Amino acid sequence: MPQTSQTVREVTDDAGRRVTVPLRIDRIISLAPNLTEIVYAIGAGDRLVGDTSYCDYPPAAKTVEKVGDTLHPSIERIVALRPQLVLVSTASQLEVFTHQLETQNIAVFVTDPHDLEGVFRSINQLGGILDHDDQAKQLVDQLRSRTAAVEAAVKTTQPVRVFYQLSAEPLYTAGREAFVTDLIRRAGGLSVTADVSGAWPKYSAESALAARPEAIILPTGGSMGAANSTVAEPLQRSPAVVLGKVYKINDDHLVRPGPRAVDGLEEMARSLHPDVFKL
Amino acid sequence: MTISESSHGRASTVYKPPHNRTTLRKTVIACGLLSGTLLLVVVLMSLVGSEPLPAGASLCALLSFGRSQCTLTSDQFAILFQIRLPRILLAAAVGGSLATAGASYQALLRNPLAEPYLLGISNGAAVGTMVALVFFGASEWSRPLLAFVGALVATLAVYRLARGRAGATPERLVLAGVIVTTFLSSVIVFVTTLMDATRIRSFTFWLLGDLSGTSKNLLPVAIAIAFVGTVVLTANARSLNLLMLGERDAFDLGVEVGRVRIVVFVVASLLVGSSVAASGSVGYVGLVVPHLARLSLGSDNRLSIPAAALGGSLFVIVADTVARTLIAPRELPVGAITALIGAPLFIYLLKRT
To answer: The pTM is what?
Structure first.
């Protein structure tokens, strides 16, 4: 369909690409659960015509037409749904896929948040593109003030040394580039693997034990189901386990860089510093 | 003398078994030396890891068999005895099992390229382990059991595919192995795609061979199977020597060919199954080590099978030490290291045969 300069605008995404999008967008597809959550949170959920099988929040997202999962979306189904815009996260590594969509005249917007600031930026960007600037700004203000409250509460506390166990066998953790490393720091923790390169490195069991973590965080109970609900065998004798400081936190709040990341931040801060949050 | 050369032996030539006493002495000396080296390597590699431990105190604790903590802190002691040493012992069991299985397949099939990984037998065991994880996740024992079943089924499939009217040529066997390997790889990809995204990460790592998940319960099983399997196959080494002349000649010389074949298939599948269930598919061990054993000690199976077992343990212990220290505190899968060494050697051997 021919578009004049009045009906389109140009935006820059997190990959540094200049994306031309229509001024008025009615049909969008989200290829990542955190982006689906943002779209609903800024009140644009009714424009979602497709999302992935991982998109399960809010409950309404489950009823949206599925285009596959984040790693293996069906390009045919996407094209058939005639979206004006497809939202992707770099975690899905869809370079080739992005190119295919662009040859079909479908705009692709890439997000790549590495920390909570990045999440706020994604929210504002999507608000701008979907003409929901006010809702986006309101949401970000809310999330910022909740974040500031947590940070103020833990400010005077001694940071707790945390080991983040992504999976027990083999032992995976969160590295420097993981979004959750920033959350742990803001929650008054210090990830013992914060300086390890990569986002999700496989980690040496002896190094994990030698780091003497005072708390262990197990992301579990959300999309993970019952998986990852026990501490890896070698860490059973770490100070965290001996002192009973093992905290299970909904994995969806910790690994999805969306609005609920602030829930995850609050849950972690309450676990790590219970006396500060005692009423 | 390589195996393929010996298989050209004519039926008319009378087979003269190698001088028994010489072989026995050679076996005792070679295996004694290898066992000593193995013990030394176990101790030395226990001193290396992502966490530096005081060498003197560690040595003192190791020599006391863990009865004394010497001057190690309790954390250091736990790292040494609960994390590092069990992993090294598992590496020994896995390496010994895979090399013994490889050496026996090579003798039985009269094919220097027969190797559990290349023939798809490891993949058969991997499918069995995955089925166990998906359907009987709670029961650790189901893993080696179903891995054994998977390995045995894959072995029989390759054997049937490889046997043409002209017998199983090395090329035919390798081709059959490629077919079984790729077919089972597709099964694995299919199953992982159906599974939770959260579990795929651990599977892809595990499929490359990974010793980090040493299980307290399965370690003694893996060691026991490696030991008993090597003893049983060594006890059949004389029959395997005669089989290297050809099945008909061996039969004429009184070898119960059918029985030996079943013993090798079952015991080798057990060895591969227990290894894969514990550590995933560590490739090329069954190829590299038996070849080195035969190159240096000759192709008498009574010597080369036990030597390959000890050599396999050494090889995987060293490879895993590289895997766990090279980019410490991050880790590499040990299968990547063994394949890096094994694949070029495979090409070299393929050119020679």
So the answer is: 0.85
